[in-house]
Amino acid sequence: MKLSWKTLLLLSLPIIVIGFFLWQGFLAPTTNELNTNIARSRMTYGRFLEYLDMGWIKKVDLYDNGHTAIVEAVGPELGNRIQKIRVELPATVPELIVKLKKANIDLDAHPTKNTSAIWNLIGNLLFPILLILGLAFLFRRSNSSSGGPGQAMSFSKSKALFQMEAKTGIVFNDVAGIDEAKEEFEEVVTFLKKPERFTAVGAKIPKGVLLIGPPGTGKTLLAKAIAGEANVPFFSISGSEFVEMFVGVGASRVRDLFKKAKENAPCIVFIDEIDAVGRQRGTGIGGGNDEREQTLNQLLTEMDGFEGNTGVIVIAATNRADILDSALLRPGRFDRQVSVEIPDFKGRLDILKVHAKNKKMDTGISLSIIARRTPGFSGADLANLLNEAAILTARRRKKYITLNEIDASIDRIVAGMEGTALTDSKSKRLIAYHEIGHAIVGTLLKDHDPVQKVTLIPRGQAKGLTWFTPGEDQNLISRSQILSRIMGALGGRAAEEVVFGDTEVTTGASNDLQQVTSMARQMVTRFGMSNIGPLCLENEESNPFLGRSMGSASEYSDEIAIKIDKQIYQIVEKCYQETVKIIQDNRIIIDRLVDLLIERETIDGKEFKEIINEYTPVPEKEKEVYII
Questions:
Q1: pTM of the entire predicted model
Q2: Which of 50, 297, 503, 574 is the most exposed, having the fewest neighbouring CB atoms within 10 Å of its CB?
Q3: Cβ-contact 525, 537 below 8 angstroms
């Protein structure tokens, strides 16, 4: 790789500075002759006078303004050889010079010649010069990258990624499972390509489209597809990139972004995670943030202010639409709000077909079975599922992905990594009864989800798991379905009590009891499914940081609170008694299933149902899917 001289200069600056200081501190030259005539031995001034009186001194060289002398002496004590000896002289000894002259000693004085002041001056000038040159070079680079002088500190410049023809490699055909949202954006792209079709009937181009949906549903992917389909300039930026610690920077960046967009109109501006800058103003415990509010106000003005943003379509994405400012959501700014929800069965099947194109899958795999097995999975979850299955296939040294890898990947995503198998012991048998209790109650109840499989293989924090296949529509749930789920969750604790007795029940049902209490409380306080009546006594959630639910802790009286507690207790107690009866009536089946589970560690739902059918008829479920 060939580097320019500017890059080499920038890289060499630190080396030059460090080398200079090392050179000045350790290797700076000096002309002081004393350093070149250092004597190895020393003597005191008194001893020097004794040598002088005995006539052993032959030559004296004075240095350092007469404070140091290098003498050449010879005598018996010195082995009759001439030696150089260093002597530190007193400050004022005028009689010494006279005495040396009387003795005819060769005397010489050497003036100090030290140029360290010159080197200090050069050093003091060299470092500032290098620093100024480096800053000038950086200043020029900043000017060239920002497009003009005076922009070295270009905080106010927009950080949006700009592409005249965005080649993301993704088009509408690569987006599946969100057909309604695709139709909306196909219309926007058509408007950009053929505006005359719409203007002929008086239609105006929409100013903004807001994508709303849970994480992983494909909002950003859809924006990339728009960029790939539309042959217009495309700006993409994250909402958090508008906000800085300096007041006014965010608003300046918004102005700069829309200025560039208007210069290239018609174009598309995509703002990802707009909730970072579009949050409601003047709410919350701590009040609003002036910098963020200024940025939002500028965004509102640019989208539909006095001048408007003709020819600029703003597309934004968020999964927190509930916290966005109402002024941002009104028509004229975001004319359309497109909901991108968790895909249904058909959507999941289409998404799996897209992501399975580059995967080597066994011919016996049915993607419809996988789609049935994964309700509630988003597009990102499904992509991750197939990728995990491919990784597991490579780890097992197989050539093709099979249903076993798919099933193991689903378990890993939902419940966590597989742990160490349990050893045969009392605790393993107790866990087996606990899981069989969940499974048999769920199987014998008509309104409960069908059992997918029961396993004693630990995953995450769970020592054993019972998998159920939930129905497709989870938004509308009947009262009988909720009661069946409560009973299914209580099946593990009921099996422990019936088989091992009250004193041997364990803490394994703690999470089950939390779910049971939550479901019963929602029946009473939110769904109106109790004797209290059709009343909604509690909201779904409160958020005091948005200025919500900052008043009283409850919305009902103490008398109603007592009734709520009684109703919750009655619902759970009744369900528990019915669950215990189911366990007691089917004890023989449970014992057989426990022995089989301990032996195999996993029983799939189909075999589980067939074994129960040998003893008692199993009610037919709406949809039963088996993947193993």
A1: 0.66
A2: 503
A3: yes
Q: At what angle do helices 558-585 and 479-500 cross, to 10 degrees?
A: 60
Kindly name the residue from 291, 302, 435, 497 that is annotated as catalytic: 435
Name, in order, each residue with C-beta under 8 angstroms of 179's C-beta and a sequence gap of 6 or more. Answer: 347
Share above pLDDT 70 across residues of the chain, in percent, rounded to a whole number: 77
Residue-averaged pLDDT of the chain: 79
Annotated catalytic residue 559: no
Side-chain half-sphere CA neighbours of 337 within 13 A:
15
pLDDT digits (tens, 9 = 90+) for 369-396: 888 888 888 888 999 999 999 999 999 9
CB neighbour class for 535 (10 Å; exposed up to 12, middle 13-18, buried from 19): middle
Contact 86, 67 (CB under 8 A): no
> Locate tokens 């005249």: which residue?
164
The DSSP secondary-structure symbol of 155 reads: T
Whether the upstream peptide bond of residue 214 has omega within 30° of 0, thus cis, is no
Q: Edge to edge, what strands does the sheet with 106-109 contain? A: 41-43, 83-88, 68-73, 57-63, 106-109
Q: DSSP states of 357-394 as a string?
A: TTS-B-TT--HHHHHHH-TT--HHHHHHHHHHHHHHHH
Roughly how many angstroms between the first and final C-alpha of the chain, as a whole number? 55
C-alpha 390/C-alpha 109 separation (Å) is 90
The encoded tokens of residue 559 equal: 């008398």
Helix (H), strand (E) at residue 611 = helix 605-613
pLDDT digits (tens, 9 = 90+) for 469-501: 876 656 678 899 999 999 999 999 999 999 999
Among 241, 238, 234, 299, residue whose Cα is nearest residue 273: 238
Report whether 341 contacts 217 (CB < 8 A). yes
